[in-house]
Batch of 4 targets.
Target 1
Amino acid sequence: MRTRMLMAVGVSYAVDALFLACFWWLDRVSLGLPLLYAAAGLAHIAVFAGVFRLGWGRQGRDPYLTEWQMVTAIAVQLGAVLLAPWIKAYFLCIIFVVFAFGTLSLTIRQALLMWLSTCAMTAITLQYLPSQHNAAVTIPDNAREAVLVGLAYASILLRCLLLNHYGTVLRVRLVQRQRKLADEVVAVHRLATHDLLTGALNRHAILPMLEEQIHLVQRGRQACALALIDLDHFKRVNDGHGHLVGDQVLCRVVDTMNATLRPSDKLARYGGEEFLLLMPATTLEEALVVLERVRLAVAHQSWQDLVTDLPITLSAGITHVHARDRLDDVLARADTSLYQAKNEGRNRCVCLAAN
Ligand SMILES: Nc1nc2c(ncn2[C@@H]2O[C@H](COP(=O)(O)OP(=O)(O)OP(=O)(O)O)[C@@H](O)[C@H]2O)c(=O)[nH]1
């Protein structure tokens, strides 16, 4: 960003040097002026490139001129006014360009300070000109007109500054709105894909993931296993301790399961107290090991602060994705094995391979 800004400054100096060269061609200025102007431009770029490289100044922030760059550029223009007062309007106009570019990143206080100092520097510079050149824009007939022209110049500069400041305020507001919007998009996306109570993924989020895994298995890329997990006799928790405790149990179950899973495993709340665990790159045998670990972690979790009289356990039906499977086939198989786990006495994992 800074490099591009310095290049823009360089181009601006080059354009002005070219115009001055035309003035030289018309015999209005000596050859020294365009050369000196170009040298000033080169020095500006070299010095500020060095300053930014050393990490001084507002590096990494907006790509606008820094205060010191503005002061330097304005000083160069006022120097040129002194050297070629008969075309001073040209250099004074360039100050507007410097303002337009520089004040975008200044606070209103800094900008007003810059305006005041520029007006003062301009007034002082004009004082040093031969009398027929010492007005800002036109040759005045008398001192009152000189003051009037000076004030007019200052007011144009001020309006330019305020306009820029307004642009800056709008830009900052726009950036803030964009950030807020981006945060809201993230929040809405989370709401759409996660279960509000437990923070696990929801059914709408997990099913497309499962579809994707089925495609990968069909292309022979990797294995994939999944499990339907259901809390045992959860109704008793609700009936005995109320829904609030039931909710807390659900949250802790999810935290406990997540703590034992790999980041690549995806856990979703599939229904009330039913969860779907997707395990990419996992075979049926490996999935059984994972689910046993999950089951034991939940069973051995400390529940004393929530439920003292009931064990909190889970049953899991595990299966793997087969190349011939459609979504419903895998889910039906996981459901069948979960049903079997429940029938065999709960607090267990049952595997069911595809035929
Ligand atoms: N606290 C709470 N309970 C829920 C939530 N969603 C579902 N439930 C309860 O989960 C219980 C599920 O009961 P059942 O389907 O009979 O199953 P179960 O009691 O776990 O028995 P098995 O699954 O056969 O072991 C019901 O009491 C539901 O009200 C929830 O978000 N919060």
Note: DSSP finds eleven helices and six strands in the chain.
Target 2
Amino acid sequence: MVDYVQENNIATLWVNNPPVNSLSSNVRQGIYDGIARANDDPTVKAIVIAGRNRTFIAGADIKEFSNSDGNISVSLVEVTDQLENSSKPVIAAIENFCMGGGLEVAISCHYRIAHHKTRFAFPEVNLGILPGATGTQRFPRLTSLRFALDIIPSGRVFSAEEAFDNSAVDKIVDDKVYEAALNFASTVIDKDFNSRRTSKRSPPDTDLLGDLVSKAYVTNSKRFKELAPKYCIKAVAAAAKPYDQGLLIERDLAFQLFTSGQANALQYAFFAERSTSKWELPGGFNWKNTNGRPINSVAIVGSGKMTAGIVTCFLRAKIRTFVFNTTEMANRQVFINSMNILANDRKKRRITAEEYYIYLSYFTYAKSPKIIAKVDAVIDDLPQDVNIKRDIFQKLDRICKPSTIFCTMEIEKIASATKRPKMVIGTHFFAPANVMRLLEVEYGPETAPRTVAAIMNMGKKIRKVSVLVSNRTGVVANRLMGVGTDQAVFMLEDGINDQRLIDNCMEDFGMAMGKFKTIDIIGMDANVDVLRKTLNEQGYDLDENRNMVRKSLNNFLHSYTYYAFFKYGSRRYPLFTYELSVLGKKGERNGYGYYRYTTENRQPIYDEEIVEILKNYRKRMGIQTRTFTYQEIFERCLYSSVNEGFKILEEKIAHKPQDIDVMSLMGYGFPRQVGGIMKFAETTGTERIYEAVCRYNKLYPDQPCWRPSKLLERVAKENIPMKYWGQIANSMSKL
Ligand SMILES: CCC/C=C/C(=O)SCCNC(=O)CCNC(=O)[C@H](O)C(C)(C)COP(=O)([O-])OP(=O)([O-])OC[C@H]1O[C@@H](n2cnc3c(N)ncnc32)[C@H](O)[C@@H]1OP(=O)([O-])[O-]
């Protein structure tokens, strides 16, 4: 784990814990013992710490946080103290990743030499903790309170150049960082380095503490539903006190965070996100035993609202991207929109000017399908009309090379229209596609495992978190969270007069956005499309009925019969959203939805008109209004999604609870500090949720989302821990 190598009078401690040299207990012990050995050896004059596997140290081993193997070794605080107190100068040779505990190790050394491409960060805040191995006290002393208050509460990654500019490293090299560190070591042998002991210094800007702290509170306020950002600010502020006092404050805050449920949930989310790449298919094919061809070129067919967002994902990954539309104007518009997205990235310094031009050079127009004949994958962004889609894909099937994969949301309909059903797969991007990291990948009954492998790898290349699901109807993430949205609409219809009440309840819980704000952002049309599709599956045609009623009655909106047709069937549908869409409210896009929006300010504004529309609606529907408790709002919005999550598992649409959690986190802004909808179920207690689901099922028999999932029933009754839920679902007979 840590190799001790001596060359002449310099000892090197090589950290070797692949893949990212995390600071597991053995590594900590190895560094500690290595420093002691070098200090005891009179022939050693200086010590270098470097990392094997072409990286320095990416931080603590997160698995050990919740899963100690009983291996008692020294703590990281003991290691950092041991480093700083070394009687011989210690030089850190830093490259690739220097994060968390790794950065705490580096700043406890006396000198730091870094490769110019090194990425530095204190990502602890993202795991619900703080740099509690003296990092909050040493870092501001080495750099400044200003820089520490920027870096530690945000967890943002910073470059070697920024590290140098802020005195966090002493030298940057373009090549061979270890050799540079050895050379550097030979220049400091026998020199006094007492002033290099970080804890002995004071931050250079303590006089500005008040202003800097206020600024940090404002900058990070959006994340204050999580405890860690606030605690990080408090801990860094304590660095203005004498070191020992600051350290006590750091320890106290670190302990409080470590034992909070949030830290546990955030660490769970870290691994859940990574676990989605370990996909598995029912026949035993999986990410390990299946190779897919690399996707080096794609064609995006169509020009919808999301096209430019999708295109930029590929451009940023330097994948040759063809945009295929039959009109030059449509192609041009996609180019302009993609250029605007990248220009914004450049303005916000997410990419450099050079990268901007390089990325754009990967864009190509295609007016004729022949131009895209040789692409590795075609991505469908055509209008929702299946006949148009089938027609175009039939043509592409004749033109494209045999290995071209077709990605569409209508897998079975496109597969049956082509002679390559094995090469047809579903990809669902979430809007805005250039921002949202979730990619839902759906396999159909005929999709080949190699096609799955190719598209899952493509997802990684375009920096998406890809979740593999089996194809049923519609987007799984929408199904998961959509049931909760329907509940919100029903409660509004049944008596809540203020949409903010439900939105606030969800936002207080930590959701990035309330239910009605989400409907507005997604757009009324998209929501009504889902309703239209659901009704189609039940044999109803929303528009057909609308036309029918229109013909027979002048104003169908006043038609009681029309609504009664759906309401008094066996199932209730969230028709109020439909009513608003018919009234011309399209959501945030046209400024009118459940809220109002102005062109200057896209923030939702409460709209009293909704109450009037609601009153008329209720009258026509014959709804007797009633009051709702906060608890009922909370339970109906969230427990309905939990029940749906269990159904998605038992129907074998998703493979494991982590996949469902990632969909809720990355597709719908579920609070990361709760871990995801399934982790929420575990924390709340499945027994409690099952009891509520049964209660609502009795109260609302016209809402099938309350039929209790068999899997939920079993895990609740037998009190089965979450780690077995996927296994049990897979052993249940297919529904
Ligand atoms: C008292 C205070 C103590 C100190 C606390 C801290 O240091 S807190 C700060 C702690 N540090 C952090 O928060 C940094 C967390 N790490 C990262 O942000 C990224 O991994 C990366 C930027 C280092 C590399 O990105 P990349 O896209 O090149 O690679 P990738 O992300 O795909 O990971 C590759 C594999 O390594 C695994 N693994 C990675 N890190 C850890 C870890 N620390 N531990 C365990 N495992 C870890 C990861 O699961 C994956 O395993 P798999 O699935 O192949 O079995």
Note: The chain has a mean pLDDT of 91.
Target 3
Amino acid sequence: MSLLPDINELIARARADLRMGVPLVLETGTEAALAISAETLTPERLGDLRQIGDPVIAITARRAETLKARPYDGDVARVLIPRDTDLGWIRSVADPADDLITPMKGPLNSQRGGSAALARLGIALAKSARLLPAVVLVPITEGARYAADFGLTRLNHALAEPHLGERSVMNEVVHARLPMAASEAGRLHIYRPEDGGEEHYAIEIGRPDRSKPVLARLHSACFTGDVMGSLKCDCGPQLHAALEHMGREGAGVLLYLNQEGRGIGLANKMRAYSLQDQGFDTVEANHRLGFEDDERDFRLGADILRELGFSSVRLLTNNPKKIAMMEKTGVTVAERVPLKVGETAYNRHYLATKAKKSGHLL
Ligand SMILES: Nc1nc2c(ncn2[C@@H]2O[C@H](COP(=O)(O)OP(=O)(O)OP(=O)(O)O)[C@@H](O)[C@H]2O)c(=O)[nH]1
Ligand SMILES: [Zn+2]
């Protein structure tokens, strides 16, 4: 019956539920749990979860490292929530904002044994919902009954897990002429993924020859830099310099990928900025929040380029990972074109950290 939502549609629903603080029913073949994002959990729902069983908060090993909690599950830790704690305690495990003021939340005890599959699934969903990677879970016995009685989204681990690591098929929705300051011969294409995720944009300049390497830029969204003219990064100047370069040559393609904050979303990026104000660098801040340094998937850039008919690029970048990922996904990088613009007194340390820790070329 095609009217039933498929697994991608259920995942999209689950993302929206987590953002709204609605519980999910997560299941493997043998166990089930209710899962709520630690960020959007309310005191009422925490109270109700406690009526059902003893909840744990699942965090990433990155966050666990900062909190000195044992990640018995490798990349994930399931931290026991003591009975006498309130929502503030749960939030402070999830959110590093007050780490320096109240460094001791523990000792934190992590759950050992049993499967961490549902914890891992919950965290992956929270990341894809651009929330803090922390989820409160309570075991239940009858997943189907909870889902039916309360109208909750029910996700099976074995079905959902492969889709969370995969990038979705992307379809062009529309394209139209867009005269710009950098070039009057602009054209904007909108791509919409089938998994209900973010749309991405391709700005084509001129009519690039598909049989030759095209001057290309994979630009990740940066609201603060691109729109507000933030001095903390080099994104705005890079965006404009790339477009101007393409305008001068009369041909090029710029992909504007909605992977704000290296894939963690704007709210989490601002949390990272607040940590940077406390003295942590851009990489340390991501780790304290529980993220990897870079959560982006550049393969989708290669997918869009191929959709547009390009198989070879002259890539404007200083990031070797973008080059490696393009090549791995079957788009040849015929040349790397450096893009060094926009250094300020505010971003000098940020750029130096990217060079030192993330392998960016100077
Ligand atoms: N998490 C986090 N993201 C940041 C920070 N500063 C900038 N960003 C994001 O980093 C991304 C910048 O990406 P790109 O312009 O593709 O830069 P890049 O990976 O350094 O590669 P090239 O510019 O091609 O050399 C954007 O998504 C920004 O929003 C930060 O301090 N923390
Ligand atoms: Zn930026």
Note: The chain has a mean pLDDT of 94.
Target 4
Amino acid sequence: MFKALIEPFRYPKLEVGHGEAKVFGAMGSRKPKAKAKNWSGTLGRIWHYLAERRAKLVLVLFMVLLSSGLSLLGPYLISRAVDDYLGGAGGRTWGIFLLILALVYLLNSLVSWLQNVWMIEVAQETVYRMRTELFAHLHRLPISFFNRRQQGEIMSRLTNDIENISSTLNSSAIQIFSSILTLVGTVGVMLWLSPLLTLLTFIVVPLMMLGMRWITRRTGPLFKERQRNMGELNGFIEETLSGQRIIKAFSQEERVITGFRERNTRIMLSGYWAQAISGFIPKLMNGLNNLSFAIVAGVGGLLAIRGLVTVGIIIAFAEYARQFTRPLNDLANQWNTLLSAIAGAERVFEVLDEETEARDEGAAVKLQHVEGAVKFSGVSFSYEGGADTLQDISFEAKPGEMIALVGPTGAGKTTLIGLLSRFYDPSRGSITLDGRELSTITRESLRSQMAFVLQDSFLFKGTIRDNIRYGRLDATDEEVEEAAKLANAHAFIMRLQDGYDRMLSVDGSGISQGQKQLLAIARAILANPSMLVLDEATSSIDTVTEIKIQEGLQALMRGRTSFVIAHRLGTIRAADRILVLEGGRLLQQGSHEELLQQGGLYSELVRGSKEAAEA
Ligand SMILES: Nc1ncnc2c1ncn2[C@@H]1O[C@H](COP(=O)(O)OP(=O)(O)OP(=O)(O)O)[C@@H](O)[C@H]1O
């Protein structure tokens, strides 16, 4: 019956939400269901982290043992007190038993508290390490990993999924262990007191097992689904917040809200059903517990009348019967939390298992100084095994030369730069820097010799000074200002309130596009790289700022090998070599004059841009 109830809700049929899949294709896509994973493997990996805190864990386990032992002692002491009283010893030993009982309960509270505190410590240290490892790993992953995923979805693994593991380790792990111990101990004592009554208590066990199995089989996938939905929602939130301008510009607010509602509904439904169904467990256990209590009381009463057991034993038994179902109940409850943590851990390990950028070859050298001679020989490249994006590219750049890359959109200009900075490696051919294969140079030292000034220069939250200093962290304030002057940024910075100490909010909002570029140029000048990559701005910047940017760029390029992705042909006439790309092929190369004489795509592009300017 439940199946019929759940199925319609697992993939809710909402009346809205078809349109936005088209507009926001990437946002709307559902990921295929994750393959069933090996749980014991995941638990084993969590254990691997926990084992780092072995000493404290042993202490916790000892406390759990002690606490379980103390819990077992309680009912036994009660039964002794009752039997001693009824047996006529009345008034002498029962008081002592009750006093010991009170001490046992008090001690048990103290032990449980200590066990909790130490386990929380172990859990917090463990997730701290996991979180740090995950973050560090993310920063070592190749660009291709980020091409495939939404940022918010990745963030969800760092926050929600880790949090799930954390809360499970904090409480559930210990609870599960203590429940198993209490269960085993209780059954042992029960068998010792009365095998017959134990058997009677056990009548309800198969029913409990069947009930739990039935429920957890249904809730497990729902918890997994909820984690996945949560990741998807985070991805959607991140994407829509960072795309605010476009959303507003295209008046897509309503569609976005509808898209959010759809994802939110999925989370609500999977969460609702997971909780609602698992909430049935305590009720079921309670009912069966009462049933077993009634059996023990009824049959136990008959046995007592016949003198086969004492009243004390029946009282102890009733208590043990309750204790026996409690850990089962706890286990069932914790099982759901554990499932949710396993689902989270699987998502964390999935990222940790992603291969980092290929390691630098053993013999890779660290570059100290670079002249800047670059040579591409027969280079081809394809993204993730697809068709070739670049085919058989060969050219040379001498130290200090300015190389311009031109060609229609999608020609492969950005991809070529990606190869030069080793975000990707070529499928065929070779790239050398100062005669040395790029693959024999450590990535870090290669990239430290390059600076990028991109169309949309990223600025971090912090002061203008900090943002320029990002180019070289040990630069003095004077050096920062010197770089800003060379970049033509000094004047506008001084006009701002607080000048160099002006705080920039996220991604530099609060200053203009052109000003952002000037700061990026200052940052690159400070880095003093041997090679430069400039992605010329396509957006129209006012003429005065543009002249300033051009002057700043001239200062920056002097004496450095520069690769300029040019969108407006006017600015690259002075280039030493222009590479004309189309469909991933290098069609032409030469200076502006040489290419004009040759005719072909370049002269067509120049003619096209002149006509556009005149129009
Ligand atoms: N991460 C990627 N995965 C798969 N294909 C990609 C990826 N990035 C780019 N491409 C494809 O590679 C080709 C070249 O793209 P590239 O960004 O290098 O072109 P471009 O010349 O820089 O274009 P534009 O002038 O528009 O920036 C395009 O067809 C593009 O669709």
Note: The first strand starts at residue 374 and ends at 382.
